[in-house]
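TICKET: design request
STATUS: open
ATTACHED STRUCTURE:
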């Protein structure tokens, strides 16, 4: 049987504002069925990051990935940046993390674009050239069944989703860990249809712990009962 994978990721800085929360979440008591501790992926941006904390998260077995140096506030910058701009931001981010967090095992192989603004062929050409193996910035619209990760050797298996998104249009040797939108309804049998949300913290209708539990349960079984595509729980560090 295909196992049901759940991926937990956090975007932006790792610092004193969130390291205690991460220690509480990844407390070595929450375990996978094989007995191993659960782990997360941290897409680290440079600004406000404490690199000794990044080093510790890596030491504990979590994945560290790139999320840019500047986190440029202009969303259009990311949509239309050229290959060199992307390299400076993402390969540069990897260099900074490797140097200041002393990560020397070549394990930083993934990235996520700020604001999930996909950079089209320029972004993915840079990834090929700089040896990044996967991106996790492209959002797939809410659908059943959800999608498994795919390679960009072939046409994307869904439409380019989002306002003015700049998706890749040619064959590229990069994996896409696609961000399946979550169904934000508590009870899909009675609730009206709502647009999905890619990041958990953008599901703004969820206000209580009970709502959040129902939301997680429904989305888990939406993946588990259909095709076992990985369930992505994507958060911003500030949330």
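STATUS: resolved
RESOLUTION: sequence designed for all positions
ATTACHED SEQUENCE:
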């Amino acid at each position: 049987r295909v196992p049901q994978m759940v991926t937990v990721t956090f975007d932006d800085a790792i610092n004193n504002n969130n390291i205690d929360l991460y220690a509480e979440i990844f407390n070595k008591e929450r375990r996978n069925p094989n007995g191993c501790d659960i782990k997360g992926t941290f897409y680290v941006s440079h600004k406000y990051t404490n690199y000794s904390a990044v080093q510790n998260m890596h030491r504990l077995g979590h994945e560290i990935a790139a999320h840019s140096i500047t986190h440029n506030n202009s969303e259009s910058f990311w949509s239309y940046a050229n290959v060199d701009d992307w390299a400076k931001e993402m390969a540069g981010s990897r260099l900074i993390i490797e140097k200041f967090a002393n990560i020397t095992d070549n394990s930083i192989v993934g990235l996520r674009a700020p604001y999930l603004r996909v950079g089209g062929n320029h972004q993915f050409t840079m990834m090929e050239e700089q040896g990044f193996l996967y991106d996790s910035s492209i959002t797939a619209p809410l659908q059943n069944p959800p999608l498994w990760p795919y390679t960009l050797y072939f046409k994307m298996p869904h439409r380019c989703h989002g306002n003015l998104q700049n998706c890749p249009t040619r064959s590229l040797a990069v994996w896409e860990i696609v961000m399946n939108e979550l169904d934000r309804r508590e009870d899909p049998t009675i609730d009206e249809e709502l647009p999905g949300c890619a990041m958990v913290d953008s599901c703004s209708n969820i206000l209580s712990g009970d709502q959040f539990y129902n939301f997680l349960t429904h989305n888990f079984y939406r993946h588990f009962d259909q095709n076992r595509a990985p369930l992505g729980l994507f958060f911003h560090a500030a949330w």
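CLOSING REMARK: Helices lie at 19-25, 51-59, 75-80, 83-100, 120-130, 209-224. The chain is about 30% helix and 15% strand.
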